[in-house]
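C-alpha cells in:
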C-alpha cells in the first residue's frame, strides 16, 4: 500500500481545482464542442465566472453551509455554479435534469435547500417556497468573491445515488475529496498538463463533472465537452478535429461509436471507461479500430474510482486492474474478515481512505455505514496474487444456481463472442424457484445457444431460459438495467 499525503489545510475544493488560473490565464480550460464551432473558456475567464457566481449566490441570500439545489441542464453554467457555490462555502447539490417534479420533490425536502438554481424547462420541486434563481448565467457577472478556506474535512457537496437499495440517498463529500482524486491521475488517467481530455458525457453527470472537468482543471489541462445534441457517431470527428489526447466515456458510448466507420485520431493516446463493466468485445473492437487502449475503472458515488488499469500499469486481460496507489481497500467475507487471494468476496474500502464520503445525509447528520473498519461497496471481486482484481458483479446481481453463486458477467463473457449483446439474470418461475435466464438480441436458434453453453460453461452456470429481445434495456448513459431486463423477460414469457 502506498502512503497518500494528507490534504493540506486550510483548504477549498474550488480554489484547488482552479489553482492554475494565475499561471495559465490564457490557456483554454474548457471547450464546448458543437458540430461547426466551439465555445471556449480560458482559465482566467473560468475563474472569474466561478468567483463571480460565488458573489451572486451570497447576494441572493445564501450563507455559509447553506445547500443549493442545482436544476441545471447540459451547459457550462453547471460546473461554474457547482464550483461557485463551493468557493463561497456553500453546499451545491447537483441533480439530474431528467428527474420529474414527482422525483425531485422528495429529494428537495430531504436536503432543505436555501436556493434553487433552475435551467429552462427543467422540473422543480412541487409545493416549495424556496427562492428560485432562473438567470444562472448572469450570476457570473458579479465581482469575484474570495475563496472561503477551512477544514478539508468539512462538507463540500451532496450528490444523490440509488446504490443497491433503489432509494435515492444523499452522499456527503468533504472538500478533501478533490485532493484524494490525485490518486487517479496516474492510477487511471495518465493525465498531465498538456492533455486535452474529451469526455462524452453531459455536464450534469457526476462522471463528467469529476473525470471530464474537475480533474483536468486540477492539473492545468484542457477539458473538451460535446455540446447538447451532439450524437455519439460524430465523436471521432470531434476527437480528431480538436486534437484530443484522452477520451472518456461509458461503455454504451463506445458501443454506439463502433457501429460506424472510424476516423484516424493521430493525437489520441488512450481512452477511459467507467460507469459499468466494459465488455471485452467492445474493448477489442476499439483497440483494433483506433490502435489505442481503453483503461477501465471501478468506483462508486461514495468513493469515486479506486480500482483501475492505467497507461503505466495496464490491467491484465479479463481484470479490472489494480488498487490505485494510496487506496486502502480489501476483499472481505460476510464476517468482514479479509479473504485469501483467489477467493471471491465483497470489495471494501477502509474508513480512513481519504476519498471515502463523510456518509449519507440522514436526519441532519452523516451516517457512514461501516462493517468493522470497512465500508462494503456491494461489488463482488477476487484478487490475484499479483494484485489484479477480477469483477464478479454487484452482490445484488449475483445469481444463485443450485446453491452456487454465479457472476452474470462470467455468463455474458461466454456468450458475447457467439451471440453479441446479452444479459444474464435470475428470474423466479414459481414461488421460491429461480433459474438463470439469458436475454439476447441475436437471431440464433435456442438449440444453438444451448449447444454453445455446453462448450464453455459448467452445467450449473448454463441458462435454463433463453429469450430474444429487440434490444436490451439501458439507461440514458448506456448502462444495462438488469431490473428492466427481468421485467421484460417476465412480460415475454
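Residues out:
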Amino acid at each position: 500500500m502506498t502512503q497518500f499525503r494528507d490534504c493540506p489545510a486550510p483548504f477549498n475544493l474550488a480554489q484547488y481545482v482552479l489553482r492554475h488560473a494565475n499561471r495559465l490565464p490564457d490557456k483554454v480550460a474548457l471547450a464546448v464542442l458543437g458540430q461547426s464551432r466551439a465555445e471556449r473558456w480560458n482559465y482566467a475567464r473560468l475563474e472569474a465566472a466561478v468567483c463571480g457566481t460565488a458573489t451572486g449566490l451570497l447576494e441572493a441570500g445564501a450563507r455559509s453551509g447553506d445547500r443549493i439545489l442545482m436544476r441545471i441542464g447540459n451547459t457550462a453554467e453547471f460546473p461554474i455554479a457547482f464550483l461557485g457555490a463551493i468557493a463561497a462555502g456553500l453546499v451545491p447539490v447537483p441533480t439530474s435534469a431528467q428527474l420529474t417534479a414527482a422525483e425531485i420533490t422528495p429529494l428537495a425536502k430531504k436536503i432543505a435547500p436555501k436556493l434553487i438554481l433552475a435551467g429552462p424547462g427543467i422540473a422543480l420541486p412541487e409545493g416549495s417556497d424556496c427562492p428560485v434563481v432562473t438567470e444562472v448565467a448572469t450570476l457570473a457577472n458579479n465581482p469575484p468573491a474570495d475563496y472561503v478556506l477551512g477544514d478539508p474535512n468539512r462538507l463540500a457537496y451532496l450528490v444523490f445515488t440509488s446504490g443497491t437499495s433503489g432509494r435515492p440517498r444523499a452522499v456527503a463529500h468533504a472538500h478533501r475529496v478533490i485532493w484524494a482524486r490525485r490518486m487517479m491521475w496516474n492510477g487511471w488517467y495518465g493525465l498531465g498538463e498538456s492533455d486535452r481530455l474529451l469526455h462524452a458525457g453531459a455536464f450534469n453527470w457526476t462522471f463528467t463533472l469529476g473525470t471530464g472537468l474537475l480533474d483536468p482543471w486540477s492539473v492545468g489541462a484542457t477539458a473538451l465537452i460535446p455540446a447538447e445534441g451532439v450524437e455519439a457517431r460524430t465523436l471521432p470527428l470531434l476527437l480528431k478535429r480538436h486534437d484530443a489526447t484522452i477520451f472518456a466515456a461509458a461503455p454504451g458510448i463506445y458501443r454506439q461509436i463502433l457501429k460506424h466507420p472510424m476516423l484516424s485520431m493521430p493525437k489520441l493516446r488512450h481512452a477511459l471507461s467507467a460507469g459499468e463493466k466494459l465488455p471485452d468485445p467492445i474493448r477489442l473492437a476499439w483497440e483494433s479500430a483506433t490502435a489505442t487502449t481503453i483503461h477501465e475503472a471501478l468506483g462508486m458515488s461514495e468513493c469515486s474510482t479506486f480500482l483501475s488499469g492505467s497507461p503505466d500499469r495496464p490491467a491484465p486481460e479479463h481484470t479490472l486492474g489494480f488498487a490505485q496507489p494510496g487506496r486502502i481497500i480489501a476483499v472481505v467475507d460476510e464476517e468482514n474478515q479479509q479473504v485469501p487471494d483467489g477467493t471471491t468476496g465483497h470489495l471494501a474500502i477502509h474508513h480512513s481512505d481519504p476519498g471515502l464520503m463523510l456518509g449519507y445525509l440522514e436526519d441532519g447528520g452523516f451516517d457512514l455505514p461501516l462493517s468493522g473498519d470497512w465500508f462494503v461497496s456491494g461489488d463482488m471481486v477476487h484478487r490475484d496474487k499479483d494484485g489484479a482484481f477480477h469483477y464478479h458483479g454487484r452482490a445484488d446481481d449475483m445469481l444463485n444456481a443450485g446453491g452456487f453463486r454465479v457472476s452474470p458477467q462470467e455468463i455474458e463473457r461466454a456468450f458475447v463472442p457467439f451471440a453479441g449483446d446479452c444479459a444474464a439474470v435470475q428470474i423466479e418461475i414459481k414461488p421460491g424457484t429461480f433459474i438463470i435466464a439469458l436475454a439476447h438480441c441475436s437471431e440464433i436458434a435456442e438449440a444453438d445457444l444451448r449447444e454453445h453453453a455446453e462448450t464453455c460453461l459448467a452445467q450449473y452456470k448454463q441458462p435454463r431460459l433463453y429469450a430474444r429481445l429487440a434490444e436490451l434495456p439501458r439507461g440514458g448513459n448506456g448502462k444495462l438495467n438488469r431490473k428492466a431486463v427481468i421485467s421484460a423477460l417476465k412480460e415475454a414469457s
